Amino acid sequence: MVWAKPHILMFDNDPVSTGVLARVLAAEFRVQLAPDGCHVLDAARRAGNTPDLILLGVTPPLREGFEICRQLKADEMTRSVPVMLITQHGHADDEKRGLTLGAVACITRPFRLDVVKARVRNQVRLKLDSDLRERYANQDSLTNVANRRRLDLALDVEWRRAMRDEKPLSLLMVEVDWFRQYNNLYGHRVGDQCLLRVADALSRVLTRPGDLLARYAGAKFAIILPSTDQQGALLLGERMRDAIAELNIPHFRQDGVHRVSISVGCVSECPNMALTHHQLLQTAEEQLLAARNAGCNSLQARKETASSGSGPNKRSLPDQPAAMLREPASCCGCS
Asked: Is the peptide bond before 271 cis (omega within 30 degrees of 0)?
Protein backbone atom coordinates (compact mmCIF):
# COMPACT_ATOMS: atom_id res chain seq x y z
CA MET A 1 0.00 0.00 0.00
CA VAL A 2 1.32 3.47 -0.91
CA TRP A 3 0.78 6.17 1.71
CA ALA A 4 0.60 9.85 0.79
CA LYS A 5 2.00 11.07 4.12
CA PRO A 6 5.24 10.20 5.94
CA HIS A 7 4.74 7.80 8.83
CA ILE A 8 5.44 8.79 12.47
CA LEU A 9 5.25 6.25 15.29
CA MET A 10 4.72 7.63 18.83
CA PHE A 11 4.92 6.17 22.32
CA ASP A 12 4.62 8.19 25.52
CA ASN A 13 3.17 7.53 28.97
CA ASP A 14 1.74 11.06 29.14
CA PRO A 15 -1.59 10.72 27.31
CA VAL A 16 -2.43 14.44 27.47
CA SER A 17 0.71 15.74 25.78
CA THR A 18 0.75 12.76 23.40
CA GLY A 19 -2.79 13.56 22.27
CA VAL A 20 -1.98 17.21 21.69
CA LEU A 21 1.16 16.41 19.74
CA ALA A 22 -0.54 13.71 17.67
CA ARG A 23 -3.34 16.06 16.64
CA VAL A 24 -0.91 18.77 15.60
CA LEU A 25 1.28 16.42 13.56
CA ALA A 26 -1.67 14.60 11.94
CA ALA A 27 -2.17 17.49 9.50
CA GLU A 28 1.13 16.65 7.78
CA PHE A 29 1.95 13.09 8.83
CA ARG A 30 0.37 9.69 9.31
CA VAL A 31 0.62 9.33 13.09
CA GLN A 32 0.50 5.90 14.74
CA LEU A 33 0.21 5.66 18.54
CA ALA A 34 1.80 2.59 20.16
CA PRO A 35 0.17 1.34 23.39
CA ASP A 36 3.46 0.03 24.81
CA GLY A 37 7.14 -0.49 24.07
CA CYS A 38 6.69 -3.95 22.56
CA HIS A 39 4.35 -2.49 19.94
CA VAL A 40 6.99 0.09 19.04
CA LEU A 41 9.57 -2.60 18.30
CA ASP A 42 7.11 -4.76 16.36
CA ALA A 43 5.80 -1.85 14.30
CA ALA A 44 9.31 -0.61 13.51
CA ARG A 45 10.25 -4.05 12.14
CA ARG A 46 7.12 -4.45 10.01
CA ALA A 47 8.16 -4.61 6.37
CA GLY A 48 6.27 -2.23 4.10
CA ASN A 49 5.16 -0.05 7.00
CA THR A 50 8.43 1.05 8.59
CA PRO A 51 8.05 4.47 10.25
CA ASP A 52 9.97 7.45 8.92
CA LEU A 53 10.39 8.78 12.47
CA ILE A 54 9.80 7.44 15.98
CA LEU A 55 8.91 9.74 18.88
CA LEU A 56 9.57 8.23 22.33
CA GLY A 57 8.68 9.74 25.67
CA VAL A 58 11.09 9.44 28.59
CA THR A 59 8.56 10.34 31.24
CA PRO A 60 9.77 9.89 34.86
CA PRO A 61 10.03 7.71 36.78
CA LEU A 62 10.29 4.74 34.33
CA ARG A 63 11.76 6.57 31.34
CA GLU A 64 10.94 3.57 29.09
CA GLY A 65 11.92 5.51 25.99
CA PHE A 66 15.62 5.06 26.75
CA GLU A 67 15.45 1.27 26.72
CA ILE A 68 13.27 1.23 23.60
CA CYS A 69 15.72 3.55 21.85
CA ARG A 70 18.63 1.30 22.85
CA GLN A 71 16.87 -1.77 21.42
CA LEU A 72 15.96 0.01 18.19
CA LYS A 73 19.56 1.09 17.63
CA ALA A 74 20.90 -2.39 18.44
CA ASP A 75 18.68 -4.09 15.86
CA GLU A 76 19.91 -4.26 12.25
CA MET A 77 16.32 -3.96 10.99
CA THR A 78 15.51 -0.74 12.86
CA ARG A 79 18.75 1.12 13.53
CA SER A 80 18.32 3.34 10.47
CA VAL A 81 14.94 4.69 11.67
CA PRO A 82 15.52 8.08 13.33
CA VAL A 83 14.37 8.43 16.94
CA MET A 84 13.42 11.68 18.68
CA LEU A 85 12.96 11.70 22.45
CA ILE A 86 10.33 13.66 24.35
CA THR A 87 11.96 14.91 27.56
CA GLN A 88 10.89 17.04 30.52
CA HIS A 89 11.98 20.65 30.88
CA GLY A 90 14.92 20.91 33.26
CA HIS A 91 16.18 17.34 32.68
CA ALA A 92 19.29 18.12 30.65
CA ASP A 93 20.86 14.78 31.57
CA ASP A 94 17.98 12.99 29.82
CA GLU A 95 18.79 14.77 26.58
CA LYS A 96 22.48 13.89 26.88
CA ARG A 97 21.67 10.25 27.61
CA GLY A 98 19.25 10.03 24.68
CA LEU A 99 21.74 11.43 22.20
CA THR A 100 24.35 8.99 23.49
CA LEU A 101 21.95 6.11 22.83
CA GLY A 102 21.52 7.19 19.21
CA ALA A 103 18.54 9.55 19.22
CA VAL A 104 18.81 12.24 16.54
CA ALA A 105 17.20 15.01 18.60
CA CYS A 106 15.02 15.79 21.61
CA ILE A 107 11.89 17.85 22.06
CA THR A 108 10.99 19.20 25.48
CA ARG A 109 7.75 19.46 27.42
CA PRO A 110 5.96 21.85 27.67
CA PHE A 111 5.95 21.95 23.88
CA ARG A 112 6.57 24.91 21.63
CA LEU A 113 4.50 23.41 18.87
CA ASP A 114 6.00 25.53 16.08
CA VAL A 115 9.51 24.39 17.06
CA VAL A 116 8.39 20.77 17.43
CA LYS A 117 6.81 20.73 13.97
CA ALA A 118 9.93 22.27 12.43
CA ARG A 119 12.22 19.69 14.05
CA VAL A 120 9.97 16.81 13.03
CA ARG A 121 9.79 18.09 9.45
CA ASN A 122 13.58 18.35 9.28
CA GLN A 123 14.15 14.81 10.56
CA VAL A 124 11.52 13.30 8.26
CA ARG A 125 12.98 15.13 5.27
CA LEU A 126 16.45 13.84 6.11
CA LYS A 127 15.10 10.29 6.44
CA LEU A 128 13.26 10.43 3.10
CA ASP A 129 16.36 11.82 1.38
CA SER A 130 18.45 9.05 2.93
CA ASP A 131 15.94 6.40 1.81
CA LEU A 132 16.05 7.73 -1.74
CA ARG A 133 19.87 7.65 -1.83
CA GLU A 134 19.88 4.15 -0.39
CA ARG A 135 17.34 3.00 -2.95
CA TYR A 136 19.46 4.26 -5.83
CA ALA A 137 22.57 2.70 -4.27
CA ASN A 138 20.96 -0.71 -3.72
CA GLN A 139 18.51 -1.10 -6.62
CA ASP A 140 19.25 -2.46 -10.07
CA SER A 141 18.36 0.29 -12.53
CA LEU A 142 16.96 -2.05 -15.18
CA THR A 143 14.91 -4.61 -13.27
CA ASN A 144 14.09 -2.56 -10.13
CA VAL A 145 15.07 -5.45 -7.85
CA ALA A 146 18.03 -5.36 -5.46
CA ASN A 147 21.47 -5.05 -7.04
CA ARG A 148 24.67 -7.01 -6.36
CA ARG A 149 25.76 -4.62 -3.63
CA ARG A 150 22.49 -5.09 -1.75
CA LEU A 151 22.74 -8.86 -2.21
CA ASP A 152 26.22 -9.02 -0.70
CA LEU A 153 25.22 -6.91 2.29
CA ALA A 154 21.99 -8.84 2.90
CA LEU A 155 23.65 -12.25 2.54
CA ASP A 156 26.23 -11.33 5.16
CA VAL A 157 23.50 -10.14 7.56
CA GLU A 158 21.28 -13.18 7.00
CA TRP A 159 24.22 -15.56 7.37
CA ARG A 160 25.12 -14.13 10.77
CA ARG A 161 21.47 -14.06 11.82
CA ALA A 162 20.97 -17.71 10.83
CA MET A 163 24.13 -18.70 12.69
CA ARG A 164 22.93 -16.90 15.81
CA ASP A 165 19.41 -18.35 15.62
CA GLU A 166 20.60 -21.82 14.48
CA LYS A 167 18.24 -21.81 11.50
CA PRO A 168 18.78 -22.91 7.90
CA LEU A 169 19.54 -20.43 5.13
CA SER A 170 18.90 -21.17 1.45
CA LEU A 171 20.09 -19.47 -1.71
CA LEU A 172 18.74 -19.88 -5.24
CA MET A 173 20.77 -18.87 -8.30
CA VAL A 174 18.62 -18.33 -11.41
CA GLU A 175 19.66 -17.69 -15.00
CA VAL A 176 17.64 -17.08 -18.15
CA ASP A 177 18.50 -19.86 -20.61
CA TRP A 178 20.14 -19.01 -23.92
CA PHE A 179 19.95 -15.30 -23.15
CA ARG A 180 22.93 -14.32 -25.29
CA GLN A 181 21.19 -15.88 -28.26
CA TYR A 182 17.95 -14.10 -27.26
CA ASN A 183 19.71 -10.72 -27.37
CA ASN A 184 21.29 -11.53 -30.72
CA LEU A 185 17.97 -12.64 -32.17
CA TYR A 186 15.63 -9.94 -30.83
CA GLY A 187 17.93 -7.06 -29.90
CA HIS A 188 19.05 -5.66 -26.55
CA ARG A 189 15.99 -3.47 -26.03
CA VAL A 190 13.71 -6.51 -26.23
CA GLY A 191 16.23 -8.38 -24.07
CA ASP A 192 15.95 -5.70 -21.40
CA GLN A 193 12.16 -6.01 -21.44
CA CYS A 194 12.51 -9.77 -21.08
CA LEU A 195 14.71 -9.40 -17.99
CA LEU A 196 12.26 -6.90 -16.51
CA ARG A 197 9.36 -9.35 -16.95
CA VAL A 198 11.41 -12.22 -15.56
CA ALA A 199 12.38 -10.21 -12.48
CA ASP A 200 8.75 -9.23 -11.88
CA ALA A 201 7.59 -12.84 -12.19
CA LEU A 202 10.29 -14.08 -9.80
CA SER A 203 9.42 -11.41 -7.23
CA ARG A 204 5.75 -12.43 -7.27
CA VAL A 205 6.69 -15.98 -6.25
CA LEU A 206 8.24 -14.71 -3.01
CA THR A 207 5.74 -14.36 -0.18
CA ARG A 208 7.76 -13.27 2.85
CA PRO A 209 9.23 -9.83 3.59
CA GLY A 210 12.57 -11.37 4.55
CA ASP A 211 13.11 -13.03 1.15
CA LEU A 212 15.35 -11.02 -1.18
CA LEU A 213 15.54 -11.13 -4.97
CA ALA A 214 18.59 -9.48 -6.51
CA ARG A 215 20.10 -9.21 -9.97
CA TYR A 216 23.43 -10.98 -9.69
CA ALA A 217 24.98 -10.32 -13.10
CA GLY A 218 23.71 -10.18 -16.67
CA ALA A 219 20.78 -12.61 -16.92
CA LYS A 220 21.46 -14.11 -13.48
CA PHE A 221 19.40 -13.52 -10.34
CA ALA A 222 19.99 -14.63 -6.75
CA ILE A 223 17.31 -15.20 -4.12
CA ILE A 224 18.06 -15.25 -0.38
CA LEU A 225 15.60 -17.39 1.61
CA PRO A 226 16.06 -17.05 5.39
CA SER A 227 14.77 -19.83 7.67
CA THR A 228 14.21 -22.06 4.64
CA ASP A 229 15.43 -25.64 4.32
CA GLN A 230 16.24 -27.41 1.07
CA GLN A 231 12.74 -28.79 0.59
CA GLY A 232 11.26 -25.31 0.82
CA ALA A 233 13.89 -23.83 -1.47
CA LEU A 234 13.37 -26.53 -4.09
CA LEU A 235 9.65 -25.97 -4.21
CA LEU A 236 10.13 -22.22 -4.58
CA GLY A 237 12.62 -22.89 -7.39
CA GLU A 238 10.01 -25.02 -9.16
CA ARG A 239 7.40 -22.31 -8.71
CA MET A 240 9.78 -19.82 -10.26
CA ARG A 241 10.34 -22.04 -13.30
CA ASP A 242 6.59 -22.39 -13.67
CA ALA A 243 6.10 -18.63 -13.32
CA ILE A 244 8.54 -17.94 -16.15
CA ALA A 245 6.94 -20.62 -18.33
CA GLU A 246 3.54 -18.98 -17.77
CA LEU A 247 4.89 -15.71 -19.18
CA ASN A 248 5.14 -17.58 -22.50
CA ILE A 249 7.76 -15.18 -23.89
CA PRO A 250 8.61 -16.37 -27.44
CA HIS A 251 12.18 -17.59 -27.96
CA PHE A 252 12.93 -19.87 -30.89
CA ARG A 253 16.03 -21.68 -29.67
CA GLN A 254 18.45 -24.17 -31.13
CA ASP A 255 17.33 -26.78 -28.61
CA GLY A 256 13.80 -26.79 -30.04
CA VAL A 257 12.18 -24.94 -27.12
CA HIS A 258 10.10 -21.97 -28.24
CA ARG A 259 9.74 -19.91 -25.07
CA VAL A 260 11.96 -18.27 -22.47
CA SER A 261 12.92 -20.54 -19.57
CA ILE A 262 15.25 -20.46 -16.58
CA SER A 263 17.67 -22.83 -14.89
CA VAL A 264 18.01 -22.83 -11.11
CA GLY A 265 20.78 -23.84 -8.70
CA CYS A 266 19.91 -24.38 -5.05
CA VAL A 267 21.92 -24.66 -1.85
CA SER A 268 20.84 -24.85 1.80
CA GLU A 269 22.99 -24.70 4.91
CA CYS A 270 22.80 -24.19 8.64
CA PRO A 271 25.59 -21.58 8.96
CA ASN A 272 28.47 -22.26 11.33
CA MET A 273 31.96 -20.95 12.02
CA ALA A 274 33.52 -23.45 9.59
CA LEU A 275 31.65 -21.94 6.62
CA THR A 276 31.19 -18.49 5.09
CA HIS A 277 28.43 -16.89 3.08
CA HIS A 278 30.89 -16.68 0.17
CA GLN A 279 30.95 -20.47 0.06
CA LEU A 280 27.15 -20.52 -0.02
CA LEU A 281 27.23 -18.21 -3.05
CA GLN A 282 29.90 -20.29 -4.78
CA THR A 283 27.96 -23.52 -4.24
CA ALA A 284 24.78 -21.97 -5.64
CA GLU A 285 26.70 -20.98 -8.78
CA GLU A 286 28.05 -24.53 -9.08
CA GLN A 287 24.54 -25.95 -8.84
CA LEU A 288 23.33 -23.49 -11.48
CA LEU A 289 26.11 -24.68 -13.80
CA ALA A 290 25.07 -28.28 -13.11
CA ALA A 291 21.48 -27.38 -14.02
CA ARG A 292 22.59 -25.84 -17.29
CA ASN A 293 24.79 -28.81 -18.13
CA ALA A 294 21.97 -31.24 -17.35
CA GLY A 295 19.68 -29.47 -19.78
CA CYS A 296 18.23 -25.98 -19.66
CA ASN A 297 14.92 -25.35 -17.91
CA SER A 298 16.03 -27.44 -14.94
CA LEU A 299 16.71 -27.23 -11.22
CA GLN A 300 19.69 -28.74 -9.39
CA ALA A 301 20.60 -28.82 -5.71
CA ARG A 302 23.50 -30.27 -3.81
CA LYS A 303 22.43 -33.17 -1.63
CA GLU A 304 21.47 -31.67 1.73
CA THR A 305 24.09 -32.14 4.44
CA ALA A 306 23.39 -33.14 8.02
CA SER A 307 24.12 -29.58 9.12
CA SER A 308 21.22 -28.38 7.01
CA GLY A 309 18.61 -30.35 8.88
CA SER A 310 15.41 -29.35 10.60
CA GLY A 311 15.20 -26.38 12.89
CA PRO A 312 12.45 -24.40 14.57
CA ASN A 313 10.39 -21.80 12.68
CA LYS A 314 11.80 -22.62 9.28
CA ARG A 315 9.99 -22.77 5.97
CA SER A 316 9.60 -26.46 5.18
CA LEU A 317 7.53 -27.88 2.36
CA PRO A 318 6.56 -31.38 1.20
CA ASP A 319 9.27 -33.95 0.47
CA GLN A 320 10.97 -33.56 -2.89
CA PRO A 321 14.10 -35.02 -4.51
CA ALA A 322 17.35 -33.11 -4.20
CA ALA A 323 17.49 -32.55 -7.95
CA MET A 324 14.56 -32.05 -10.32
CA LEU A 325 14.80 -31.83 -14.10
CA ARG A 326 12.23 -31.09 -16.79
CA GLU A 327 12.43 -30.83 -20.54
CA PRO A 328 16.13 -31.80 -20.71
CA ALA A 329 17.96 -30.55 -23.74
CA SER A 330 21.48 -29.76 -24.80
CA CYS A 331 22.34 -26.31 -23.49
CA CYS A 332 25.24 -24.57 -25.15
CA GLY A 333 24.33 -20.89 -25.31
CA CYS A 334 22.71 -19.88 -22.04
CA SER A 335 24.50 -16.62 -21.52
From this structure: no
